[in-house]
Amino acid sequence: MNPLARSIEEFLPVEISSSFWFYILLRTALVVSTVCVAFILPFFGLVMALIGSLLSILVAVIMPALCFMKILGKKATRSQMVVSTSIVALGIVSAVFGTYSSLSEIAHKY
């Protein structure tokens, strides 16, 4: 919630966004709106699991290893490349299994 709240605060004038009460009200409104969406959408948890299995693995596991390989390029040792490639492969396998699990659970409940 904090990155979203900070982004909203950046678009507002400083005298409004620096207020303590605005800080509290904005974050409270974001949490309440998230709870409302969770109650309205019947498969909210499953959709969040699907998004998490795709994006979290991509951002936390696959992309850092790919960036490491891209930045070092030919300077990386053979063992570094093997470990980085293994991490990417494991991340892809995890993302595929997580996505399959989430999709099968959504299909089962639907």
Structure write-up:
- This is Transmembrane amino acid transporter family protein.
- The chain crosses the membrane at residues 20-41, 47-69, 81-100.
- Helix 4 (44-72) runs antiparallel to helix 5.
- 87% of the residues lie in helices and 0% in strands.
- The protein is built from five helices and no strands.
- The protein is flat.
- The chain has 110 residues and is mainly α.
How large is the count of helical segments? 5
Total count of strands: 0
Oligomer: single chain
Shape: flat
Order of helices and strands: HHHHH
Overall residue-averaged pLDDT value? 89
Cα-based radius of gyration, to the nearest Å: 20 Å
Biggest β-sheet strands, sense, barrel: none
User: Helix amount, in percent?
Assistant: over 70%
Pfam family, one: Aa_trans
Main location: membrane
Domain Amino acid transporter transmembrane: 18-102
Keywords: Amino-acid transport, Membrane, Transmembrane, Transmembrane helix, Transport
Please give the structural blueprint.
Elements: H1 2-11, H2 14-17, H3 20-40, H4 44-72, H5 78-109
Helix pairs in contact: 4-5
Task: From the structure above, extract its key features.
single chain, 110 residues, mainly alpha, 87% helix, Transmembrane amino acid transporter family protein, transmembrane helix, transport, membrane, transmembrane
